[in-house]
Amino acid sequence: MNKDLQKMFIEDAPQDITETGNVKNLSDQVLSLQSLENEIKDEEEKLKTKKERAGKLSGEVIPAMMKEMSLSSLKLADGSSVEVKPVYGASIPIAKKEEAFNWLRQNGLGDTLNIWKLTFEKKTSDMLLNV
């Protein structure tokens, strides 16, 4: 029984890392990981660039062309459509936020303030951006 137990310990023991094959295999895996991480970084940069181009097309180029052509909407052959609507937005610099909110309150516009702070995990945030 003692010899069987010793044999089981030897079989279950991790292999000696100093073996040349194991070191080379580990090195290969680390290099593969580094290569994959570099590819991911490159693909993320490409995706960021594509998102910026899409934003420019949808927010500037297409609306400007449609305005030139006096079009407010366009229906495509596949049934999809494009519509240009004015969108208004504003932001208050963080340094002036309290001053701006106080001004709104003092001028009877405090009830227009809807202040929401939501915190999402990265995964949830990415999902919401794609909705």
Please describe what this structure looks like.
It contains 4 helices and 2 strands. With 131 residues, the protein is mainly alpha-helical.
Summarize the structure.
About 60% of the residues lie in helices and about 5% in strands. The protein has about 130 residues and is mainly α. Strand 1 (about 75) and strand 2 form a beta hairpin.
Give the strand tally. Answer: 2
Mean pLDDT: 80
The major β-sheet equals: 2 strands, antiparallel
Dominant shape:
elongated
State the assembly state of the protein chains: single chain
> Which stretches are poorly predicted, pLDDT < 50 over at least 5 residues?
none
* Count of discrete alpha- or pi-helical segments spanning 4 or more residues: 4
What is the CA-CA span between the terminal residues?
64 Å
What integer value in Å does the Rg equal?
Answer: 30 Å
Strand order of the largest sheet: 1-2
Strand content: under 5%
List the helices and strands and how they pair.
Elements: H1 2-12, H2 20-68, E1 73-75, E2 81-83, H3 97-106, H4 122-129
Antiparallel strand pairs: 1-2
Please describe the structure with a list of short key phrases separated by commas or semicolons.
single chain; 2 domains; 60% helix; elongated
